[in-house]
Amino acid sequence: MRYPKERKEAVLRKMMPPHNRSLVELAKQEGISEATLYNWRREARDKGLLLPDGDTGPEGWSARDKFSAVVESAGLNEAELSEYCRKKGLYPEQLEQWQRACETANDWDREHNLRLKAEQKADRQHIRQLERELTRKEKALAEAAALIILRKKAEAIWGDNEGE
């Protein structure tokens, strides 16, 4: 069933902050299937609209929605930021926290690489230690094998002296 563009936009506005209506609630209220509402929300998100899940507060927003809120509010002065937060049902502290998380998101890769390098260095040292130990044991085994062979040759040449 095709819905008029105006109705679709009105329903989408009800999904947006500050209303944040859940899709289940909107489906019952508007008489539109939940699947249709999910599709509308997905399409709107793909176009860059901030449409968090209505049944969760800002704490339950997806990373994409949080990032969108940070980008939308980046250039606002204090009064505009307060108005933006009221419209979206947010606290300025939440936006500041999300902004810090966005700023450090790319450092995760650098920190991860540093940790990997440290682990690789420790692994290489451990491998070198094991190789040294293996070499030492191989030499000891070769020496023991040589002694056994010499002993057998001596017994073959001079006979078994242990029995006398």
Describe this structure in words.
The structure is a single chain. The chain is mainly alpha-helical and 164 residues long. It is built from 7 helices and no strands. The protein folds into 2 domains: 102 residues, no CATH class; 52 residues. 73% of the residues lie in helices and 0% in strands.
Topology:
Blueprint: H1 5-15, H2 23-30, H3 34-46, H4 63-73, H5 78-88, H6 92-105, H7 107-158
The pLDDT mean sits at 84
Write the element-wise H/E pattern from the N-terminal end onward. HHHHHHH
Contiguous uncertain segments of 5+ residues: none
| Strand runs, count | 0
Characterize the main sheet: none
Outline:
This protein is mostly helical. It has helices at 5-15, 23-30, 34-46, 63-73, 78-88, 92-105, 107-158.
Notable traits:
mainly alpha; elongated; 164 residues; 2 domains; 7 helices
